[in-house]
Specification:
284 residues, alpha/beta, Rossmann fold, eight-stranded mixed sheet, disordered N terminus
């Protein structure tokens, strides 16, 4: 589910009352997402996509969630750029990637990322996706399987109903749709309508499509995520080469509140060969 990024500013302010305000000031003060020394645009698929690249090594694409931007990974970019060439981009109609079109879909954004990798001459890469970014990571592995070496997704969902999404989050999104319908149309409201419609009525990924994913995949979620843990487990169970990691005492923001554990666990997953665990190995 992606509602976190619409709810971001108010949510982070509330969390500050629990001693977490120092975490969230980083989103406002970081140079990630507005670094003039490395920031570039690629003219692709009808819009200009903003992206930044950090570090050297094997390429790692990190994908943000609905209404988010590059700066959502203020805790991941410094860590992973020590060992990887980290590629981060503002998705279509978000951040600095302005798009005036009337429609928006996960398929469009997934193919945008594929085009970005082509423009950077990257044949394949590691991928981390959070929320919407997790959905796009799954779809990248489905639609462009040659592009993904290993995939780590957190807070992703396959469909937009309450079997997948917490009831509070689902109802919130539907109310946001109605509120936006009643607003006067401006460029900003038009963009918000596209993003809110996306989070309310998409994606639609089948279990059969998950079975086509051939890359090793780490499926992550919080035990109190807005994505129901049983839905996260369903994703894990239907990807042939997958591991499951459910964080205790965690909601949707695993890369923020559990940033150290998140970075170390995902980094270890990327570094180690995938092993199939069956038979007597299940006793280990």
């Amino acid at each position: 589910m992606r509602f976190l990024f619409f709810f971001l500013a108010g949510f982070f302010t509330i969390q500050g009352t629990y001693g977490q305000s120092n975490l969230f000031s980083a989103f406002d003060t970081t140079h990630f997402g507005r670094n003039e020394s490395v920031g570039k645009y690629v003219d692709t698929r009808g819009f200009k996509m903003y992206y930044e690249v950090y570090g050297q090594g094997q390429p790692l694409l990190i994908i943000h969630g609905n209404g988010g931007s590059i700066n959502n990974f203020v805790f991941q970019i410094p860590y992973f750029s020590k060992n990887y060439k980290v590629i981060v981009a503002d998705s279509r109609a978000q951040g600095k990637s302005i798009d005036n079109g009337d429609s928006l879909s996960y398929e469009m954004m997934t193919d945008d990322l594929n085009a970005l990798l082509d423009s950077l001459h990257e044949d394949s890469c590691y991928v981390i996706g959070w929320s919407d970014g997790g959905i796009e990571g799954l779809m990248l592995a489905i639609r462009h399987p040659e592009k993904v070496k290993k995939l780590a997704v957190t807070g992703a969902n396959l469909w937009p109903d309450t079997t997948a999404v917490d009831t509070f989050a689902y109802n919130w999104a539907m109310k946001e749709n109605k509120a936006l319908e009643d607003m006067k149309t401006t460029p900003e409201v038009k963009t918000m309508r596209k993003l809110t419609h996306l989070l309310s009525y998409a994606p639609h990924i089948s279990l059969a499509e998950l079975h086509t994913i051939q890359c090793p995949t780490l499926v992550i979620g919080g035990d109190h995520d807005v994505i129901r843990p049983e839905h996260t487990m369903l994703i894990f169970e239907n990807i042939p080469k997958s591991y499951l990691w459910i964080l205790p005492d965690s909601g949707h923001s695993t890369p923020v509140f559990y940033r150290d554990q998140f970075n170390e666990t995902v980094g270890d997953f990327f570094a180690r060969p995938y092993r199939k665990i069956e038979g007597k190995d299940t006793f280990q």
